[in-house]
Structures are given as structure tokens and as C-alpha cells.
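Sequence, please.
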């Protein structure tokens, strides 16, 4: 049995920790696009066509991200 100070065990633990951090980042994405939605509405109020198209695109992207997280695609990737 390998000792806890074995370099291969330390590398494996480090890779697991980095992988866990990368997986958790996916749950932080809404903190990025949530403030963007009101900013789009406020900054592009004089260009309604662009505003509505950009707002719709970001909203569709947000729903696609949420759908990805709750489907089996995300679950299969983490296994």
C-alpha cells in the first residue's frame, strides 16, 4: 500500500482538486450573465432592435447552459 507522502498520490489529489474547481466554475456562470441582462437593457435603450436581439441571445444562452447542467450530458462528463 502506498504511503500518503507518495508523489503519485499527491499528484492524483492535486488533479482531483483542480478538476473539482473546474466543475464548480460551471455553477458560477449565472453570476456573470445575470448582471449582463439588465446592462444590455440599459445601455442599448436607443437601439431597440440590437437590444432585443442581444438580450434574447444571452437569455437563450442562459437557458441552454441551465439545460446542459440538468441533463445527462453534464452527468456523463463528470463520471
Amino acid at each position: 500500500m502506498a504511503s500518503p507522502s507518495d508523489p503519485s498520490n499527491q499528484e492524483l489529489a492535486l488533479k482531483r482538486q483542480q478538476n473539482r474547481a473546474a466543475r464548480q466554475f460551471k455553477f458560477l456562470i449565472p453570476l456573470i450573465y445575470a448582471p449582463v441582462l439588465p446592462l444590455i437593457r440599459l445601455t442599448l435603450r436607443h437601439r431597440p432592435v440590437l437590444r432585443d436581439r442581444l438580450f434574447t441571445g444571452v437569455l437563450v444562452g442562459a437557458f441552454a447552459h441551465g439545460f446542459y447542467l440538468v441533463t445527462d450530458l453534464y452527468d456523463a462528463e463528470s463520471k
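DSSP finds four helices and no strands in the chain.
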